[in-house]
Amino acid sequence: MPLPLLGDSEGALRGREALDRAAGGTHPVIIVAEPGCRPRDVARALHLGSRPAQPFIGLGSDPEGPALAVRLFGSLEHAGPEGDFTTLGSDSALLAAGGGTLFIDDLDDLPASAQRTLARVLRDGEVGVPGTAQPVSLGCRVVAATSTGLGADARDGRLRDDLLRRFQQSIIRIPPLRQRPADLAVIVERLVKAAGAPARTFTQAALTVLAALPWSRNIDELAATLGPVLSSAGPTVRQEDVLAHLPIENAFTKLDTTATLKDARRRFEREYIEAVLERHRWKMSEAARTLGIERANLYRKARQLGISRTRRVEVP
After folding, report:
1. C-beta pairs of 88-96 under 8 Å, 24+ apart in sequence
2. Nearest CA to 212 among 201, 225, 197, 200?
């Protein structure tokens, strides 16, 4: 199971269901994931579940858009108006992927002309190559990722409508960490293992602190934070071990600095208690124990702060 889709949250379950459906098909796939959610891991899992004996080629987001287009289509011999390529170069990633999977990170970084060409290739299922009079069938499966919502990308003009249509049959969404505090424990466990560190036990209080953070860079930021924590902590990672290495400057970037101290305190208290309740799947006794208060006091606090399970709505 790919790291970004671990856990029992509704978002993780929906993501795994979409992954399973995509593994049984051949049409293009788009992965919607915020920065740091590691969509490449999901693309590789899809590849291993559908065509493991074939190549997996990933085009990262490091190159600028035009350079990314060159890697995608190759050093082309013929190009139409505005760079609308008609014949692929022999070094094209679309050809190098063969019958495997071609993963394109940050699809919206492609220039509009390259997006138009890719849309046509996916529509027709064939490409032109040097030395052949007729187009050849596209053998690879294209899996792409975008870091914002599909609707937002279309409205902003970052993704062409004709390209988006090619991906509408298969969409996999990776939920951001802030929407799935209950998944944090299993994600942390996998990250510790991936780091090659000895197995650690995280106390409930330590996990609660981690779950309360916004994690704007998601899994990448969590992994970077865990590095120094694991280096300094013992076999049991406690709350104070985590607090000593928290990226505090990022934890408060979303605060409303125009609010009064009373309003800010109330908002923090509400959001922190909600995070603890999510972590314990809304089991009041367990959440009260973590918070260090009586269960009756937690019920009273929840009423005062307007906290209810139906009130909590995540903003994408």
Report:
1. 88/127, 88/128, 88/129, 88/130, 89/130, 90/129, 90/130, 92/127, 92/129, 93/57, 93/59, 94/121, 94/127, 94/138, 94/140, 94/142, 95/127, 95/129, 96/55, 96/57
2. 225
Q: Would you state the pLDDT for residue 192? A: 95
Residue 211 exposed, middle or buried by CB count within 10 Å (0-12, 13-18, 19+): buried
Q: Encode burial over 13-48: b for 16+ CB neighbours within 10 A, e otherwise.
A: eebbebbeebbeeeebbbbbbbbbbbbbbbbbbbbe
**Could you tell me if 149 and 316 are in contact, meaning their C-beta atoms sit under 8 angstroms apart?**
yes
Q: Identify the pLDDT of residue 62.
A: 55
Quick check: 191 and 226 in contact, CB under 8 A? Answer: yes
* Percent of the chain that is helix, strand, coil (3-state, to 5): 50, 10, 40
**What does pTM read for this prediction?**
0.76
What's the alpha-carbon Rg for the chain, to the nearest Å? 23
Q: Which residue has the tokens 């995509």?
A: 22
The band of 226, judged by pLDDT with boundaries at 50, 70 and 90, is very high
Domains of the chain, CATH where assigned: 3-175 (3.40.50.300), 178-305 (no CATH)
The letter for the amino acid at 314 is: E
